[in-house]
Amino acid sequence: MGSYSVGLQRLSVLSIQNVVFLRRPKRPLSAVVTSVPGYATIKSNQTIRSCSSTNAFVVADDEKYGNKQVVSITPRLYDYILANIREPEILRQLREETASMRGSQMQVSPDQAQLLAMLVQILGAERCIELGVYTGYSSLAIALALPESGLLVACERDAKCLEVAKKYYARANVSHKVHVKHGLAADILKSLILTGEACSYDFAFVDAEKRMNQEYYELLLQLVRVGGVIVIDNVLWHGKVADPLVNDAKTASIRNFNQRLMEDQRVSISMVPIGDGITICRKR
């Protein structure tokens, strides 16, 4: 799940050829948002690791990229990004409650959630699927973006986390849009296919067991309509996918999955370095 959060414990900067981990002493995150009606001000007393340089650019050292300058997300720049996010108050409350829970780093970041909600709105999506709800931050953002007649099938195997999510669905008055499915994501997707729901979904977000990504993806390709979108989280995996010296099973599976997506002509793709990296797939 998303590793960049307002309570960020580690920030990795990905250049085109090198992964740089910032390991300076911690400092407070001081993001403040100009007040927007209906939205929360993002503040945090939690900490992130800082760096001495304020330079937000990395220049590719391979001439085939034309010495292109690309933005690297320094702590100062990430503060600025957070300061320009419209986070609904109910999402802020959920984020802050989740911050005190075990595994809070699994929650997607506000910038990710904002992008997911916008994709749903751009698509005009009415039927969505999420694999890996955790405490519901991303699913709540999606549900808020859906029309009143919309549906989100939210799949999660952790019953305790689902109770938190359902509490916030109710507080946000979106419970009628969210069909919670407690169980293994692959089993739930197979059940949806067997009950005749193939090609009936507009949007899917995958943030579950990483080594199952290929199976989830193949099942979702059956469930999502042509022109629909599948978003996969954690495709950069803290930068480990770019490090040839890291070959543990989970990193290797994500790296292999990314390569398969590159070669899959059934979809158009865009890998986006937001949060821990997402790939947006549009079914052709």
From TrEMBL:
Q: Is Flavoprotein one of the keywords?
A: no
Provide the alphabetized UniProt keywords.
Methyltransferase, S-adenosyl-L-methionine, Transferase
Pfam families, per the entry: Methyltransf_3
- Has the keyword rRNA-binding been applied to this entry? no
Mention one GO biological process in which this protein takes part, according to its record: methylation
Record InterPro entries = Cation-dep_OMT, SAM-dependent_MTases_sf, SAM_O-MeTrfase
GO terms, molecular function:
O-methyltransferase activity; S-adenosylmethionine-dependent methyltransferase activity
Family named by the database record: Belongs to the class I-like SAM-binding methyltransferase superfamily. Cation-dependent O-methyltransferase family.
* Job description of the protein: Methylates caffeoyl-CoA to feruloyl-CoA and 5-hydroxyferuloyl-CoA to sinapoyl-CoA. Plays a role in the synthesis of feruloylated polysaccharides. Involved in the reinforcement of the plant cell wall. Also involved in the responding to wounding or pathogen challenge by the increased formation of cell wall-bound ferulic acid polymers.
Q: Which PANTHER family match?
A: CAFFEOYL-COA O-METHYLTRANSFERASE 3-RELATED (PTHR10509:SF14), O-METHYLTRANSFERASE-RELATED (PTHR10509)
Q: What is this protein called?
A: O-methyltransferase
